[in-house]
Design a protein that fits this description.
seven-stranded mixed β-sheet, 23 strands, about 650 residues, 22 helices, eight-stranded mixed β-sheet
């Protein structure tokens, strides 16, 4: 509510009140004095004609020099009861009780001073059997607020005219851009509640000497109520009864998208709440493919109590507004079921296409049909949001599956049997997704095999080509999603670690002199398998296929020393900066692993032996645990890498596809 301050005589200090009253600097803010004048005119018409007000009442708005701020004049003339002695006494008394029974605040006439500096009133009213005249200039900035003058009113019969001129300079730029159509739309939309569930007199508007346009007639066939119901809603902790009214209108400059409007004192208060996200589209198409929107007007006694004195806003918490929006959106969706069904059908088609590219995402459906899943999600979601959501759901749904696959991979002797036990527990939808994913993995293996062969120029591909296939260089998994990398080629467990950095310095910026840039570094608060009492750090170094110039003891030619250097640099840094700018700390590293992926040529074999690596249990894989650095390092060739990946993949093929 607007605070009320008073002077020493107890009279409200209206200038102080106005200084704390904010008007948005837009069309609605500029027109608010005119809209208030129209509202007062309707009250005067109702007082004079009673039940015949709709048929006998008239309001005329005249806009002169609409795009010339220095000469602009706007007048509002009605044929109501006029400024009788009783009305004039109320007029002179700010925040009088007279308006309260009409759900007004008695503040509207003062709002005009936020826009205009010259305001004239002229009224002809009946006093018993004779007509009397009252004309004056009203200015709260003067010691004498009322300056009376002689002269007849410039209209016939009983009524009131208020004339606004000399707009404040901060409105001049907006005035120069005024369009008659926009003014008419703004006035019509402000009184939308009257069109839907009350009455309106004949309201006309005229620009300069053009013919008047009938606003009431213009909108009466547009703003037609199609549905109206009461509903209960929690408003700031109290269960309140509200009423919504719905109307369909053609899309226009004033109304571009579905929206919800709040109404108090039968006027629209505040700004429209856009319902695009709730309904899924900014507008619908009718049977002739013409765009239309749905407008909801919500009213209730609780709004009247929360209406501020300037009638520019209703004091509602964001939570209450969201509850209203949600309830009314549900009602609109029920009324527009055909349109919502079309949106859901389009969403299902988009998602089906996304699942063809990423079939393993089906695991995120958790046994639901695609239709049921889409029906439960927001109407505005596109394929990207569905993919993101399913990726999270898949990760949650397959946490146990991941652990079991990893456990099976660590037991090569009975890998196929364990995979079979696992697959037997999957439903048909998951088996289908898993089968498509296995085919994808088979194609990636073929690409790696091709990359390590001689090229047309007789040279080997650089290790960067294989690195790119495994994980995109100069990136991390903030930028690279699960389905954009192939870390399973090295180890299935690596695919699910929380943070992966590829070809990036620890500080996250461009490479500086002395920086050690490792191929892949993985960080995890707890291993996919194992204890949960520390941080795991895993390092991967790729080397060019068939390289044979390694030298022991020189960090430039010794991949084991390169791993140690990377480890020490990572621990010294204490963390790494992600590509999104956030920092991940990993102090207290207690588990350290490394992979050296390089063909085991004679020079590399000599280096590994020099570091006391063993290959007793598998001649094609060299291992060593270094006590000083507490790191377990595995060195394997590309042939071994592919062989192991093929075996793991073949187990899936055997079980799923009966190969």
């Amino acid at each position: 509510m607007t605070d009320i301050t008073t002077d020493v005589l107890g009279k409200p200090d209206m200038q102080a009140v106005l200084s704390r009253t904010h008007l948005a600097h837009d069309m609605h803010g500029f027109l608010l004095p005119v809209l208030e004048a129209i509202s007062n005119a309707m009250d005067g018409i109702g007082s004079r004609f009673g039940e015949e007000a709709k048929e006998k009442g008239s309001i005329h708005i005249h806009v002169r020099n609409p795009n010339d701020p220095a000469r602009l004049v706007v007048s509002v003339t009605d044929n109501g009861i006029g400024l009788t002695d009783e009305n004039f006494l109320s007029f002179k008394t700010p925040f009088s009780g007279y308006k309260l029974h009409q759900r007004g605040r008695g503040f509207g006439r003062f709002i005009a001073f936020k826009v205009f500096s010259r305001i004239l009133y002229s009224s002809r009213y009946e006093f018993f059997t004779e007509q009397k005249l009252r004309t004056f200039r009203f200015d709260i900035h003067q010691d004498q607020e009322f300056t009376f003058h002689d002269g007849d009113a410039e209209f016939v019969g009983t009524g009131l005219r208020v004339e606004y001129g000399q707009p404040l300079t901060n409105w001049w730029e907006l005035i120069r851009e005024l369009q008659p159509g926009d003014i008419i739309e703004a006035i019509g939309s402000h009184f939308l509640p009257y069109f839907l569930y009350r009455w309106l007199p004949r309201i006309t508007i005229q620009f300069d000497d053009a013919l008047p346009e009938n606003i009431t007639s213009h909108f009466k066939d547009v703003f037609v109520q199609m549905d109206s119901r009461e509903f209960q809603c929690d408003i700031d902790g109290a269960d309140e009864t509200l009423t919504y009214s719905l109307t369909r209108i053609p899309r226009s400059r004033q109304f571009r998208s579905h929206c919800l409007l709040l109404s108090a004192a039968d006027r629209i208060v505040g700004y429209p709440r856009d319902l695009t996200n709730k309904l899924g589209q900014p507008h619908f198409l009718d049977e002739n493919s013409k765009p239309y929107i749905v407008i909801a007007v919500v009213r209730g006694d609780s709004f009247e109590k929360r209406l501020n004195d300037a009638r520019t806003s209703i004091n509602l918490s964001p939570k209450s507004v969201e509850a209203i929006v949600s309830s009314v959106s549900d009602a609109i969706q029920a009324k527009e079921k055909g349109q919502i069904d079309k949106i859901k059908s389009e969403q299902s088609a988009d998602l089906t296409g996304a699942l063809r590219e990423n079939p393993i995402l089906r695991l995120g459906l958790r046994g639901r049909s695609l239709t049921d899943y889409v029906a439960a999600k927001p109407n505005h979601w596109k394929a990207e949001q569905f993919v993101s959501d399913l990726a999270i759901e898949r990760f949650r749904a397959t946490a146990d599956l991941t652990r079991q696959i990893t456990a099976a991979a660590n037991s090569p002797a009975d890998y196929e049997r364990k995979i079979k036990d696992l697959v037997d527990k999957l439903d048909a939808g998951k088996k289908e997704a898993l089968a498509e994913y296995v085919i994808h993995r088979k194609n990636i293996i073929a690409l790696v095999e091709s990359a390590r062969k001689y090229q047309d120029d007789g040279k080997r591909s650089p290790e960067d080509d294989i690195h790119e296939l495994v994980f995109r260089r100069f990136s991390d998994n903030v930028q690279t999603g699960y389905f954009e990398h192939n870390l399973w080629l090295i180890d299935d467990a690596l695919s699910f670690l929380p943070y992966i950095s590829s070809d990036r310095a620890m500080h996250g910026k461009g490479r500086k002199a002395g920086d050690k840039i490792t191929d892949l570094v993985f960080f995890d608060d707890s291993m996919v398998l194992g204890d949960e009492d520390g941080t795991t750090l895993t390092i991967v170094e790729f080397k060019r296929p068939s390289r044979d110039d390694y030298r022991f003891g020189n960090v430039r030619t010794d991949p084991v020393l390169q791993v140690i250097e990377t480890l020490e640099g990572a621990i010294a840094a204490g963390g790494i900066t992600r590509t999104d700018g956030s920092h991940m700390s990993f102090a207290g590293v207690v588990r350290r692993f490394a992979f050296i992926v390089a063909d085991i040529t004679p020079s590399l074999h000599k280096v590994l032996k020099g570091h006391d690596f063993k290959n007793d249990w598998n001649p094609k894989m060299y291992v060593r645990y270094r006590d000083n650095e507490r790191i377990f390092i595995q060195a394997l060739g590309y042939e071994t890498l592919l062989e192991m990946a093929k075996k793991r993949n073949q187990a899936f093929f055997s079980v799923l596809l009966d190969e």
